[in-house]
Specification:
Layout lengths: L8 H10 L7 E6 L5 E7 L7 E8 L7 H9 L3 E6 L23 H11 L3 E10 L1 H11 L6 E5 L5 H6 E2 L2 E2 L1 H11 L3 H7 L6 H4 L14 E6 L5 H14 L8 E6 L8 E2 L2 E2 L8 H14 L11 E5 L12 E5 L7 E9 L3 E3 L6 E8 L23 H4 L5 E4 L7 E15 L5 E9 L5 E10 L18 E14 L4 E7 L26 E8 L5 E7 L2 H5 L1
Parallel strand pairs: 3-4, 3-5, 5-6, 6-9, 9-10, 10-13
Antiparallel strand pairs: 1-2, 2-4, 7-8, 11-12, 13-14, 15-16, 15-25, 17-24, 18-23, 19-22, 19-24, 19-25, 20-21, 20-23
Amino acid sequence: MKNRLRAIYCLVVLAVLLGGSAWTAETVMVPMRDGVSLATDIYLPEGEGPFPTVVVRTVYGRGGVAGIASGANTLGMALVSQDCRGRGDSEGKDWVFDDDGWGEQQDGVDTINWVREQPWCNGSIGTWGGSALGITQVLLAAAGGDVQAQLVNVAASNFYHQCAYQGGVFRKALCENWTQMQGTSYAVDIWKSHPTYDAFWERYNAEARASHITAPGVHIGGWWDIFQQGTINSFVTRQHDGGDGARGNQILIMGPWPHGMVRETGDLVLPDNYAYDVNDVEQRFLRHWLLGDDTGIMDEPPVRYYTVGDIDDPEAPGNQWRTADDWPPFETREMPLYLGPEGRLVENAPETTESLTYAFDPEDPCPTHGGQNLTIPAGPFDQRRVSGRDDVITFATQPLDEPLEITGNVQVRLFVSTDAPDTDFTAKLVDIYPDGREILMLDNIQRLKFRNGFIEPDPLEPGEVGEVTIDLWSISLIVNRGHRIGLQISSSNYPRFEVNPNTGADFPEEGEPVAIANNTIHFGEAYPSALLLPIPVTDDEKES
């Protein structure tokens, strides 16, 4: 259950940090454009006003923000907490964020417009919240909501690629378990009826609407968070392509965390410096943009990120917080580590061409063991529990002579074939410690028929060799000397991802047959399959 509650971690932690009890709230029903009214609590500070106002829109119960309201009121800000449509005491039906963006209903925009018209609001409005509360903020901003600051924790910026589907594969555990917990399981049927990136999913892609966003923002995430890449993408798209007000006024904080700031994650106990005072950043950000205080927050580097290192060696590089002016934080080059004979990862593609074939049985999938999860155990677990399976192919470097830094987006390029109408391929980046532990750093999946894009399927003919790219998302990691870099390839990661029935169907259906796929990885000179690592460009390389 504690893993399931991580979705509201930021809400709880900041309430504790701020402490105290808020002034008594007034509850009103705020009308939306279609006549549906949403239950809304108003916490006003002492004084005559009008006041800057912080808005929280939540699916978890509007009454859970007492600590936040107290902190906001102490700073001289009003706080408005609202149950989203169909949640708590609000009217209407909860269609799981569908009414929070720029569709027919725009509850976020309507709420902000209502707040701005109230005599106690001075027109300066900020928003706050994490996970689902962060998603409502992202959609509001992309809908053109006129707010002056946003504090967005662990939120998706593109629902198709970061929430419902990754690599074209349904995120089974996250979507099914979370909606069941919320009483909105009916949304899963809708999401599964849209397995490709179509007009339905365009309504959830805030990245494509960055130019509509005018709000300065703080974006907080973790390397093993379910929405990790969404946090980074929100920062990058707004910082560079945002509208006036947003462009150049974003802050990014990426820590060594899953969906919450915890020290024990996966099979690792992080160093003492694992935490970050996000409360200080958020308070100074709000004071700067809503109160006009000179807090110095915008004079500091906009990017703060944690570089993971060897957890066992206190002298190892990494395990430190860094700052940067942008993301990626410095110039990188792509370092390919090619798949080679005898399970080796090597710096030069082998002259000969080889292949390895394994059988993927949907009725006996490779089980999930850590990674970017929410409702099942998350984080950097030791993969030896699953890596010895016959359907997992492992490659690794020799022990490193010197530490190697990997900072940025990691990808895997595979040349593959199958005897099935369709199948999936998974990849894991693991840090192999000298004692043999295979610590998971990143992993992801790619459906074969979506290897050329997600709008239209493009099946690969059985027996034909095709190229597949698996996006492992991003990290900042220094693999220590004596460690090995590992790559593990399979075709399933269940129940994190739904299994491929290997029949060409999008989902396995009860009573319908599934097939065993014989999947082949090709590598060597003709088929340069490789792990593609972003590594820093040296001064000598820059000069040349």
